[in-house]
């Protein structure tokens, strides 16, 4: 069992390392990376360009979807963890999560703007 878990672990580590660090990190658009930069680099024949644009749009949709669902799942699991210590909080889990997410996404723009300004200096 330990050998199978070790194979799974190291397979994931190697795939992630090769895929992201070697291949994906080399693709850039004037120092900018990611699926949005790759979608802007689409050139070539009209037929292959359409396919690449569609792939870029699909990747961009996945990126935005991941950006929305990851915080929601993290906050929901953290608040549901409070149920272990306080079972009476069961009916308040969804409202608490909604308030936290509304606050998080309402201040997110200000936070990323400040970080971007600091990095430009």
Structure explained in plain terms:
The protein is an all-alpha fold. It has one domain. Helices cover 80% and strands 0% of the residues. It has helices at residues 2-23, 34-40, 46-85, 93-120. Helix 2 packs antiparallel against helix 3 (46-85) and helix 3 packs across helix 4 (93-120). The longest helix has 40 residues, at 46-85. The protein is extended and about 55 Å long. It starts with a helix and ends with a helix.
Gap from first CA to last CA: 52 Å
What is the number of E strands? 0
By DSSP (H or I, 4+ residues per run), the number of helices equals 4
Fraction of helical residues: over 70%
Radius of gyration: 20 Å
The count of domains is 1
Low-confidence stretches: none
Average the pLDDT over all residues and give the rounded result: 77
Helix and strand element order: HHHH
Structural class call reads mainly alpha
Tell me the overall shape: extended
How would you characterize the largest beta sheet? none
The proportion of residues in beta strands is under 5%
Give a short synopsis of this structure:
Helix 2 (34-40) runs antiparallel to helix 3.
List the topology elements.
Layout: H1 2-23, H2 34-40, H3 46-85, H4 93-120
What are its keywords?
single chain; mainly alpha; 4 helices; 121 residues; extended
